[in-house]
Design goal:
By secondary structure, this protein is an alpha/beta fold. The protein is 55% helix and 12% strand. Bound molecules: NADPH dihydro-nicotinamide-adenine-dinucleotide phosphate (NDP) and (2S)-3,4-dihydro-2H-pyrrole-2-carboxylic acid (A1CAB).
Length: 268
């Protein structure tokens, strides 16, 4: 069994750590690092996984999961890059950063994998896209899948698609939460108690999501089934179209993709 070290255990790192533990990954095969001692101590107290320095994590683990923000990756790589033996597997969780960014700072031959997961990992419903970078073989991809499959669904994609993936599924939960938040506010506008509006919309979101996944039907067909002639739904849809919601989503996801590219260009 491999030992995984999460270097930079913030929000995403903690979700991966907790998911691995839930999936039965032994705590003595996990290591974490943190920039602030109090963060490390809190994580060890909660999960029983030792917090170590970055250099010790590099020495003791076979898989190094990079969980720092993209803007902090260069500093981390300056610290550990030269010390990473080329037989370790580096798995980047970072948005925007290409695997070449890591390869350039690691000994020649070090395999690098780029992963884009998302916060529904908290409830084992993550969408994780995995790409092989330099020197990563099918075996390395399988190891990354072994780590992320228990957290939800995994998909292999070419690295050239990862910025788009980041815009869609990496950031995606935020878009849905924004919609839910706005619809709950609409319930308040219509005079419903907040708790009632919350329950109505959250269950409608869950029901719609499960139906979308489990029925296998195209979303257009599912929407049409709700939209009665001269009914209520079409009145709402006309307002959404009038306000350019569809175009706004196209622009929003393009902006997220562009920001991923910008992060990469600022990092090199
Ligand atoms: N949040 C999300 O939904 C998603 C995030 N990602 C990616 O995951 C990565 C982490 O994001 P997120 O968890 O949100 O960010 P966080 O800021 O919550 O986590 C990053 C953690 O890394 C720590 N850190 C920074 N530098 C070092 C270092 N040199 N050594 C040890 N620890 C360090 C930070 O410490 P400190 O607490 O002191 O700041 C922080 O706890 C990013 O690259 C992001 O692009 C990918 C998909 C989704
Ligand atoms: O907003 C971000 O940059 C990160 C990456 C994808 C989701 N959150």
């Amino acid at each position: 069994m491999h030992t995984v070290a999460i270097l930079g255990t913030g929000k995403m790192g903690e979700l991966v750590l907790a998911g691995l533990l839930r999936s039965g990954w032994p705590a003595d095969r996990l290591l974490i690092t943190a920039r602030r001692p109090e963060r490390g101590a809190a994580l060890t107290a909660k999960y029983g996984v030792p917090v170590v320095g970055n250099a010790e994590a590099v020495e003791r683990a076979d898989i190094l999961a990079i969980g720092v923000k993209p803007q902090d990756a260069a500093t981390l790589l300056d610290e550990i890059g030269a010390k990473v033996p080329a037989d370790k597997l580096v798995v980047s969780l970072c948005a925007g950063l290409p695997t070449g960014f890591f390869a350039a700072r690691l000994p020649e031959g070090t395999p690098v994998i780029r992963v884009m997961t998302n916060t529904p990992a908290l409830v084992d419903q993550a969408m994780t896209a995995i790409s092989a970078g330099p020197h990563a073989t099918g075996e390395h991809l399988a190891i990354a899948e072994e780590m992320f499959k228990p957290l939800g669904v995994t998909l292999r994609v070419p690295e050239s698609q990862q910025d788009a993936v980041t815009a869609l599924s990496g950031s995606g939960p935020a878009y849905f939460y924004l919609l839910v938040e706005a619809m709950i506010d609409a319930g308040i506008l219509l005079g419903l108690p907040r708790q009632v509006a919350h329950e109505l919309i959250v269950q409608t979101a869950v029901g719609s999501a499960v139906m979308l996944r489990d029925s296998g039907e195209h979303p257009v067909k599912l929407r049409e089934a709700v939209t009665s002639p001269a009914g209520t739904t079409i009145s709402a849809i006309r307002e959404l179209e009038n306000h350019g919601v569809r175009a706004a989503l196209l622009s929003a996801l393009e902006a997220a993709r562009d920001r991923a590219r910008e992060i990469a260009s600022q990092a090199v």
